[in-house]
Amino acid sequence: MGARGDRGGVRGAATAAPPVGTSRQCRRAARRLPDRGRTVPGERRRSAAAALPPRMDARGDGGHRGVDGADDPSGRPRADMTALNQRARQRLSAEARRLQLETAAIEIVGRQGLAAATADEIARTAGVSKGLLWHYFTDFDDLMAHAARRAFISLEAVVAADIDLDADLDDLLRAAIRRAAQLPATHGAELRTIRQIVLNLGAFGGGAALRDREYSAWYARQAALLRRGQDQGQLRADLDPRLLAVTYQGMVDSMLDYLDTNPDVDPLTYADHVADVLLAGITPPGKR
């Protein structure tokens, strides 16, 4: 029996008693001793690495820690963490990277205000180096202008996704106003980003110019819907669809500003007030 009490024989020279007898007996005994490089029956061969003592870290044990002895919070070996970091920094498409950076800017402005939206903070929030910002935007003003435009597009898509564009005009407008009234609760960051960039940053791509450019596209789409309502007899024919679109958007924006600063007001109740006032003024007398 070996040192472990099994049939594998002697585990090595260190655990075997030296053979006693003649030199010929010694040679015979030596031939029977297991070779370190061979596998003894009943024993699994150990690699050279397994024979080495366990790797010790900064605390003197085998835990996964940094050179300062601090525990790795994930419990993973450092090699695994390096692989994860490399995958996290994988190359994104230009559009995906712009979305990442613009979303980070919207998040900061919406949560902390415009003053907190520095290049360093945006890069940190996005998890990239600051120099990467200037690969996709000409300067900080350009980044802010694109972030505001991203917020415009996001809000319009949210409202449009929840309404039936083929519904009667009064139902369509009422549904759109009610959905818009919920934006301060669901998309407050986007609303505050637009407000702060447009109102406080004339230098950022021209805040007023940015607003006019984006609103002009909104006005055109809204005017087309209102004109359709006129053609179907659902809207007073004597009203200018473009001016009515501007009036409608102004009422919605005022509602959103008030709801954002007065969260105790019920948004749907306010939305119904706005819709009642608007529809009372634009619906033909025979349809009221």
TrEMBL record:
It holds the Pfam family TetR_N. InterPro entries: Homeodomain-like_sf, HTH-type_TetR-like_transc_reg, HTH_TetR, Tet_transcr_reg_TetR-rel_C_sf. Residues 12-24 have a biased composition (Low complexity). GO terms for molecular function: DNA-binding transcription factor activity; transcription cis-regulatory region binding. Residues 95-155 form the HTH tetR-type domain. Keywords: DNA-binding, Transcription, Transcription regulation. Residues 1-79 are annotated as: Disordered. Residues 118-137 bind DNA. Residues 32-46, 56-79 have a biased composition (Basic and acidic residues). The keyword Transcription regulation applies. This is HTH tetR-type domain-containing protein. The lineage of its organism: Bacteria, Bacillati, Actinomycetota, Actinomycetes, Mycobacteriales.
